[in-house]
Amino acid sequence: MTTPARVIKVLANDGMDEGGLRIFRHAKVQVDTIKVTKDRLASVVGEYDGVVVRSATKMTAEVVEAGAKGSLKIIGRQGSGTDNVDKEATINHGIILKTSPEGNAGPTAELAMAHIFALARKLVPAHIETKYGQAMEIISKIRNGELDGADPAEVVRIIAAAEGGAWNKKKFQGISLTNRTLCIIGCGYIGKKLAAKASGIGMNVVGVDDIKDPEAHITYLNRDEAIAKADFISIHVNGTGLILGEHEFSLMKPTAYVVNAARAENIDPDALYHALKEGRIAGAGLDVHEGEPEKDGIAFRSRFDEFPNVIFTQHQGPTKEATAVTSADIAQYMVDFLIYRSFANAVNIAAGPGVQSARRDTTNPLLIFHDNVPRTFSQIDDVIGKHGINIHDFVSEPMVGKKNAVTIYDLFQPPTEPLIAEISSLDRVRWVKQ
User: What are 380-398's pLDDT values in tens digits?
Assistant: First the structure.
């Protein structure tokens, strides 16, 4: 019995820009945008061929495994970060993971550069004092206990009457960025964009990365040497690993500034706090924070509130334009895999996202996740031939670690249920899906 043609379904669980939705619809892929809560996700994920997320939805090992037992074949992450997806689970269960890093790279580099400008020229504290200086002076007195015992109504009256700012020009004299040294830790898409912008205004750029691009505007150094030379340090790594701890802060100049527009976990908060408190660095610009609220309108406090030389933004790397680009990119990359069998931009295959994987028209696809060992293909081919079905062609990519592989066959005839059942029964085969 021939298996009926299936409608390809994708869950966009964190929403999606209209451009991305339009690409899916044009490819006749059904997209659901109704938010599935984390407690229900594992129970429904297997109904979808693909899931596309931003940063909110957590694709845990439990969710990935549940999806692998069903129809799930691919996870798409809008943007470059994959820390909300259990990458190891995707490798172990044969679920392709693709990202769309290019769209956010330029805007995130712009945000990091904005932090560098703001720190160098003390723009944020200057703005606050120029506009709200009178009220800030009273708030400072309250914090210092100078108004303890005062009638609360009188304090409110004083604050309400404190209109206007304060003029303290010399207090906010900054530094020039020309000939200053910027250390970029993580020189991928975002890091290289930032390097180009910084070198364009006359900064000296040093970088730390295992992969060195000879065409980038970067002089590569080891981490300790780069940090010790830097006037500004900006983090742009992928993942939540610790990058700056007590050791790294001990190497910094007392005039150095730290910028983090990557992940809060990349900096040891205790080490940063003590470096600021003891005046061992000049300041910091933080776009990512411990305990970020899950939605807008929630009160937020930080242990770094007390430092006027620390400026905050609210995880603002993506712009409206960038969101549209990353949405369209990831939709196209997922369509390329689900319909045209292209592994390009997959981050959990051994060949990496730059793999040369052409789009192929597919009539009767059959996806197989199997052990990457000799004679596996001959066993699968023998079963397909035994059922009187011819193979048009196939494409295969080992997963990271090369223990397993995902192979997509294109058959001249539609696969039958007995064929799928017999291939599934092979010892070296983990799952078979249309």
Answer: 999 999 999 999 999 999 9
| Active-site residue flag, 121 | no
Q: What is the largest CA-CA distance in the chain?
A: 92
- What's the pLDDT at 136? 72
Give the Å distances, CA to CA, from 84 to 98, 220, 288, 334, 413: 13, 29, 15, 18, 39
Task: Give 9-105+318-354's CATH code, choosing from 3.30.450.40, 3.40.30.10, 3.40.50.720, 3.40.50.10610.
Answer: 3.40.50.720
Residue tagged active-site, from 315, 360, 387, 428: 315
Catalytic residue list contains 26: no
CA 347 to each of CA 98, 180, 354: distance values in angstroms, whole numbers, following the listed order? 6, 35, 9
What per-residue confidence (pLDDT) applies to 318? 85
Can you tell me the distance from the alpha carbon of 114 to that of 264, in angstroms, rounded to the nearest whole number? 18
Q: What is the model's pLDDT at position 28? A: 95
359 is annotated as an active-site residue:
no
Confidence of residue 1 (pLDDT cuts 50, 70, 90): very low
Indicate the range of 46-55, 154-163, 184-193 predicted with least confidence: 154-163
Residue 240 has pLDDT above 70, yes or no: yes
Q: Which CATH number fits domain 174-308: 3.40.50.410, 3.40.50.720, 3.40.50.300, 3.40.630.30?
A: 3.40.50.720
Complete edge-to-edge strand list for the sheet that includes strand 257-260: 219-220, 204-208, 181-185, 232-235, 257-260, 283-286, 310-312
Per-residue burial over 389-419, b = 16 or more CB atoms within 10 Å of its CB, e = otherwise: beeeebbebebbeeebbbbbbbbeebbeeeb
Question: What pLDDT shows up at residue 192?
Answer: 96
Could you give the percent of the chain with pLDDT greater than 90?
Answer: 78
Active-site choice (292, 306, 321, 417): 292
Q: Compute the mean pLDDT over every residue in the chain, rounded to the nearest whole number.
A: 92
